[in-house]
Amino acid sequence: MLIMNEAGLTDASGSPLLGADTAQVDRYIEGSFVDAWRTCVAVMPRIWFSNRSFMSVGVTPNESSGTGYVVLPSDFYLLTSFKMKGWQKPAYEAAIENEKVGSIQMNEYTRGSTIRPVCTITNKILPSGEIGQVLNYYSLPKGQPHVVEDAIYVPVALPLKDISDNGDLGIDARAFEPLAYLSAASAFTLFEKDAVAKALTQRAIEMFPGLQSTRGGSVTTKQ
User: Fold this and answer.
1) Which domain holds residue 213?
2) Which residue from 215, 167, 165, 209 is spatially nearest to 189, judged by alpha carbons?
3) Is pLDDT of 202 > 70?
């Protein structure tokens, strides 16, 4: 309820504008955390969130074409950066591979290069026989050894109930308050308190203008 008090969302007696007990509201807000996290991580700097390395994952190269892939960790959510030795700069985004993207990257004249590297994500049947997500990289000069120089990702956020009271949320202070307001806004939308949800959403947008408000107090993002 601290968020509501700070936002001035109380009635004349100082009670929250919601016909439910505080514990119940808190549970809904906690349950909205992961959705709010997804909204924030899509538009905020990824270094504001927990980052992990996947440098230790083995490379599956195709040196004759200068391409290859690495298996992504099971908790992968977004790419922060990926760089092969020989690239002039890292790749900071990874598109989901589809027919159009695949056609461009399979053509040696239009695919990514050492100057303009490209990464894509797709599913492959792994040596274990299981289907897993992989990061395809394009590309390197034909015949050059394939060595990963940098590999960092944002892992999937855990629900608050799975994090201990003293656990680290892995969130920068600049992202924490907007995320908290969005979580609260989602909870009040469930209770059909649209005016409260809209006010909370607006407060989050004021803190980080990259968040865009939509109907019903929900929030979407612009990529």
Assistant:
1) 2-48+158-221
2) 215
3) yes
pLDDT at residue 116 is higher than 80 = yes
If asked whether residues 113 and 135 sit together in one domain, one would say yes
Q: How many domains, in total, are found in the chain?
A: 2
**Residue 133 shares a structural domain with residue 191:** no
Residues 14-51: pLDDT tens digits?
Answer: 445 455 555 666 777 778 899 999 999 999 999 999 99
Based on the domain organization, do 22 and 76 belong to the same domain? no
If asked whether residues 141 and 193 sit together in one domain, one would say no
Q: pLDDT tens digit string along 183-192?
A: 888 888 887 8
